[in-house]
Amino acid sequence: MTPVSSEKSESVTSTTNSTSNQQEKLTSTSESTSSKNTTSSSDTKSVASTSSTEQPINTSTNQSTASNNTSQSTTPSSANLNKTSTTSTSTAPVKIRTFSRLAMSTFASAATTTALTANTITVNKDNLKQYMTTSGNATYDQSTGVVTLTQDTTSQKGAITLGTRIDSNKSFHFSGKVNLGNKYEGHGNGGDGIGFAFSPGVLGETGLNGAAVGIGGLSNAFGFKLDTYHNTSTPNASAKAKADPSSVAGGGAFGAFVTTDSTGVASTYTSSSTADNAAKLNVQPTNNTFQDFDINYNGDTKVMTVKYAGQTWTRNISDWIAKSGTTNFSLSMTASTGGATNLQQVQFGTFEYTESAVTQVRYVDVTTGKDIIPPKTYSGNVDQVVTIDNQQSALTAKGYNYTSVDSSYASTYNDTNKTVKMTNAGQSVTYYFTDVKAPTVTVGNQTIEVGKTMNPIVLTTTDNGTGTVTNTVTGLPSGLSYDSATNSIIGTPTKIGQSTVTVVSTDQANNKSTTTFRINVVDTTAPTVTPIGDQSSEVFSPISPIKIATQDNSGNAVTNTVTGLPSGLTFDSTNNTISGTPTNIGTSTITIVSTDASGNKTTTTFKYEVTRNSMSDSVSTSGSTQQSQSVSTSKADSQSASTSTSGSIMTSTSASTSKSTSVSLSDSVSASKSLSTSESNSVSSSTSTSLVNSQSVSSSMSGSVSKSTSLSDSISNSSSTEKIRKSINKYI
User: Fold this and answer.
1) Cα separations (Å) of 91 from 18, 38, 95, 328?
2) I need a surface site. Which of 19, 61, 74, 283 has the fewest CB within 10 A?
3) Which regions are flagged for Low complexity bias (predicted)?
4) Is the pTM of this model over 0.85?
């Protein structure tokens, strides 16, 4: 069976009268008085189960004191829902042990009560803490299933006990391993061994340590021991044990059945038959090695078979059962060290048994048929009358109203007193309640970014009931939706603005609640602009249009402002392009500011270079200073015809300074001063024809100083025909 997480139950006080002659007590010895009152308190966490099969609740600790017969049981829980606590007080001279778990596999999560027939339990390493309790020096490791009863040191006593009684009319079987340590009589000072006791006494009770090996001290009990210390002489009376038989003396650990009398004095059983006689172990304890260990009991034949490391002991124990005066037994596994030492451990495989003298009580949601809190198991002796807690006050606080009780499968139930008389056969009582409390939703106001996939908004729903809650969500912003599978609002908002969202929550009992909250969709993200690389073009040449591409998460338009354009270029905001014809050579930094509807801005820049036109590009540096004066009279008559074809590529750099003075009869007097720098790359081709008739008489006087630096490459082809040429040149 699988455990169910538990919750605390509401505090309730009940009184129980018993007609049983047997008393239950929580004490480490068999000593008790029937006049003492018994108080049981349990602190149990519970959560409404949603599974179709009832499951047991964890029981982790069980503490008892012999002085006032008080037992405390604490159950941890993984649940986080409603927490309550339960306390019951009995004035009867008997102890009623209550377990907050479901021990019956026959229960189903339905609204009808199921008959309790056989409460078969299977204990393994994973659920051991739900059914058994460690005490003393004992510890449990769930990962390995190992119960360490004693460490390898002196003065240790540890035990593990079962939480409900075993029905000896039904078969049971324990399968696991045992580690007796690495010492035994004749091989170091090892002690004391491990005892497995079946007792008619109270649940949780263990025998004495030392020679009793955890069995002595229990009245009319029986069991089996793996003894590592032979008591050759009779121990003192307080040890509650007789001397061990001489047949297993002389060194070495041994195995044997054990019985106790009405005073709790233990005797090691001997027999003429090798089948059940005390015998030394064929495999002695060495190196703290685990050996296979098995206890198998047949409820029909009453034969108990014990196996240790392949060695077998078998006996019909019907006489011991009859002597005990009952058919229902508690189980304990105990080890001690006293003045010796040994690491003593039991490793659980499985333990299957049938509970006896129990009544199961369920607390069911009438609408869903599921358990509101974990069922309780009341365990006692046959014919013992116990008071049942119907948990009405606790469940009222959880939002439930009491409806009815079904005791069809509890023939001894008294609804007036809320009592039931224990029988060998199991009984069951079911209390029904109606859910009257509406569910609640916890969610705060939200602010999310438009155009971006949002983190899911989880609607945290809390309900006291055992059924499902249905949420209906309206008023969501555009682009969002409600996912009922995850109980979350998801999506990508597409519009800026604030919306009021309404959530109506309905449970299976049709209890409703309405919750509202706001979702504010905002735009805090600046537009994105497609990067524009640096650009260049030639002066006086039209450019290819430059497109400014922008995008905003809101989906709205973006406004662009462009500054720093070269002369001749313009920005058209209607189509977001830069175009035109640059008119000045140079480099400009162009700045684009893109603004969305919410005022978020993005600034981008790129460089634009305007270069010279490639058809006439030179680089020249010259400096010139010239003064001239000339007087000339000329007459010339010339005719010439010339045809020339030339092509040249020239790169030159020149610097010149000149000064000239001239007087001319050509009606021209000039003075000039110039400084120039130029660079050029030129390819030219020309064809010319000239006819000149001229007469010239010239007289001139000139003075000139010039300085020139020039670098040039020239390729020229020319052809010329000159018919008449006359020239008078006084000075060149």
Assistant:
1) 9, 7, 9, 23
2) 19
3) 1-91, 614-721
4) no
